Amino acid sequence: MNDRFVSIYNNEVEYNLPEKINIYDTTLRDGEQTPGVCFSLDEKLEIAHKLDELGIPQIEAGFPIVSENERKSVKTIANEGLNANIICLTRTKQADIDAALDADVDGIITFMGLSDLHLKVKMNKPREEINEICMNAVDYGKDHGLFVAFSAEDATRTELPKLIEIYKLAQEHKADRIHIADTTGSINPYAMQYMVRNIRKELDVEIALHCHNDFGFAVSNSIAGLLEGASSVSTTVNGIGERAGNASLEELIMSLKLLYNKDLGFNTQVISELSKIVSKYSKIPVPDSKAIVGNNVFRHESGIHVDAIVKDPFTYEPFLPEMIGTKRQIVLGKHSGKAAIEEKLDSLNIKVDEQKLLEIVKLVKEEREKGFEITNDKFDEILVKANIN
């Protein structure tokens, strides 16, 4: 039943997506840069293991130069025997890369802010000198046997010719991947397509996307870039991260799988548990209306909806909750109808006639409109009022 359509039109369209798409998750690095978030080593290990169980091919485990504890955390994860490759973030500084080497990672993402604004405010050096610093870092990482990704921070606010210039240098210096960082979430999907398309024309190296969600476009921008030849995407669980967060791991995976017919082979049944773990340890509640993993996604009250869902869940659900390891919830309230009450009564092995059923429906609506949530205890009270023993 999970294979039934989400929309009949999705199957009518051919999507020009890369044959292989790599998701590198940065929950343990950019996710932890959410103000107020600080994962313990044990928490990081549990998250890393759950990401590995999901099937994430690359885990960005942290930023080793930040502190001695951070370096130890990254090193512990790198030596945990996970199937995922473990990478980390470094500035374009030898000390950062040495810290990464000491942490036993498989690779690094070395970055530099390259917009005119970043160079003026942060570096105050000519672009030619900055380009040389960046390539020295790429060379140093490659010379030490690391997978090296070069990331242009604030790429989406950097003039395209300047970006292409340094990306070409990175390719010449044998960088394994170049990253387009939408650092302030300031690009839209059409502009992202334009950008990736024109970079792809000039380069023959893997392109990755690191999108922030300031305008709510992080997942859309990621998919837009994939459609134009990017093949690697950065995500975080629950979309956590600086400011408005990053591209949501669960939204990207399920969108690709069900809306773009691109199944990346992930064990999606662990998504709900992974979301809960990250929410618990980050202390960031998942909004009830959050796509894919929000509590209300498979929670139904409206009588019209419940009546149809009992007969066929696909009437009001795009996919079955079991796909992400969760369950459907039927909620009793002012919008409830006979179908919801019948299902509740069936779960209690209680049979009533039509008249009594309608009486219970009426009592449920009245109690909810008085401000009472229809909990199991409240429903028991309603049954007593209706003389149901």
Q: Could you walk me through the main structural features you see in this protein, from its secondary elements to its overall organization?
A:
- This protein is an alpha/beta fold.
- It folds into 2 domains: 263 residues, TIM Barrel (Alpha-Beta Barrel), CATH 3.20.20.70; 87 residues, H-NS DNA Binding Protein (Irregular), CATH 4.10.430.
- It is built from 14 helices and 10 strands.
- The protein has an 8-stranded parallel β-barrel with strand order 1-2-3-4-5-6-7-8, surrounded by 7 helices. A two-stranded parallel sheet has the order 9-10.
- The chain is elongated and about 85 Å long.
- The chain starts with 21 loop residues before the first strand and ends with a helix.
| Count of distinct strands | 10
Distance between the terminal alpha carbons, to the nearest Å? 38 Å
- Largest sheet report: 8 strands, parallel, barrel
Number of domains: 2
- CATH homologous superfamily label of the largest domain: Aldolase class I
- The count of helical stretches stands at 14
- Helix/strand order, N-terminal first: EHEHEHEHHEHEHEHEHHEHEHHH
- Helix content range of the residues, please? 40-55%
CATH class of the largest domain: Alpha Beta
Residue windows where pLDDT falls under 50 for at least 5 positions: none
Q: How would you state the average pLDDT, rounded?
A: 93
Instruction: Please state the overall shape, judged from the principal axes of the Cα atoms.
Output: elongated
Q: What Rg is obtained from the alpha carbons, in whole angstroms? A: 25 Å
Q: Architecture of the largest domain in CATH?
A: Alpha-Beta Barrel
Pairing-aware structural class of the strands and helices? Answer: alpha/beta
Question: Which fold does the CATH topology of the largest domain refer to?
Answer: TIM Barrel
